[in-house]
Amino acid sequence: MAWTRFGKKKDMPGGLWIKCEACGSMLFRKEFESKHRVCGSCGYHFTLPARERIELTADPGTFDELFLKLEAEDKLHFVDRVPYAKKLKATQKKTGEKDACVTGTCEIKGHPVVLAVMNFAFMGGSMGAVVGEKVALAVETGIERDLPVILISCSGGARMHEGPISLMQMAKTCAALSKLNDRGGFSISLMTHPTTGGVTASFASVCDVLLAEPGALIGFAGPRVIATTIKKELPKGFQRSEFLLERGQIDRIVTRDRMRDELARLVAYARGLDPVAAYGPWEPKPPAPEAPPKRARGVIKRKAAAEE
Ligand SMILES: [Zn+2]
Question: Which residues surround ligand 1, an ion (CB under 5 A)?
Fold first, then answer.
């Protein structure tokens, strides 16, 4: 697989065809989307928007979104090319999201969990106060409700527009995970392309099990920055999931089509249930039978009372 750096926008929305960032193949958009944005020729895993990730991971109709009202504040009155406050509003309008993380509870093949999924489309999935708070709250929900926590990362790192406030999120998220660990909770970190900067250097790396998608760029500083700093050529595949698996930084690489099964298996294992059964086929539970109308029950009760 030819490695490309992330950030190249060759995926043109609205077009019938998409060019693969890794192998250059032309992919028919419908087929590409039916494969959940994985290249049919080389298996390259494109970045998946948060909502699509949730749809792919959670059992249908089980996702219950939490903390959706949290919104970032421009405490530093930061001005880049565009003032941060203005940029936030524009990104919210463009993406329809309040910030770069979606949190909630759901079931995965019938196993209840807490999910926090980062959205790269929102300012590169950068971690500011809202992302940090939502990840910490998701972990605390896991503690309160005694549920496993799954954190799915896709991020350029800390959000520079929030300066030291964004750096504080690293400590906050790790403190929450440490508390979960002390209480005997279970956490899984899934790192997807790309997971870099302060996200790799905090919550994404300190969960109980660290999973990654194939070919994902995972690191702190980018490879170009490192190469120019140390003035050395970097080894092939540097900072990719396969490279990190070989060196023990991550536990397992899982393809997108098997991810739901793998998460269900790990969660079942952590809950003391049968992990092998959890990996196999799964049928959704039939809907619960509807309760009889309240009035009818009242009538029966009154009738019974009258008979006594
Ligand atoms: Zn490809």
Answer: 20, 22-23, 25, 39, 41-42, 44
- Percent above pLDDT 90 for the chain: 83
In the chain, where are the structural domains located?
A: 1-46, 47-283
Of 152, 27, 46, 36, the C-alpha closest to 102 is 152
The residue-averaged pLDDT of 168-188 equals 98
Instruction: Tell me the fold of 47-283.
Output: 2-enoyl-CoA Hydratase; Chain A, domain 1 (3.90.226)
186-219 in b/e form (b: 16+ CB < 10 A) is bbbbbbbbbbbbbbbbbbbbbbbbbbbbbbbbbb
Q: From the CA of 82, how far away is ligand 1's center (Å)? A: 35
d(CA 217, CA 157): 12
State how far the Cα of 7 lies from the Cα of 274, in Å rounded to an integer.
Answer: 41
Answer for the pair 36, 52: CB distance below 8 angstroms, yes or no.
Answer: yes
β-strand 64-66 against 26-28: which pairing, if any? unpaired
pLDDT at residue 298 above 60?
no
**pLDDT for residue 13:** 53
The mean of the pLDDT values for the chain is: 91
What's the rounded Cα separation, in Å, for the pair 188 and 203? Answer: 10
CA of 195 to the centre of ligand 1 (A): 20
Q: What angle do CA 152, 156, 157 make, to 5 degrees?
A: 85
pLDDT in the model for residue 200: 97
What is the three-class DSSP state of 254? coil
For 167, the 3-state DSSP assignment is helix
Spacing, Cα 46 to ligand 1 middle (Å): 9
Range 37-61 average pLDDT: 96
Match 């940090």 to its residue by tokens: 132
d(CA 144, CA 179): 11
Place of tokens 């999973």: 211
Burial of 113 (0-12, 13-18, 19+ CB in 10 A): buried
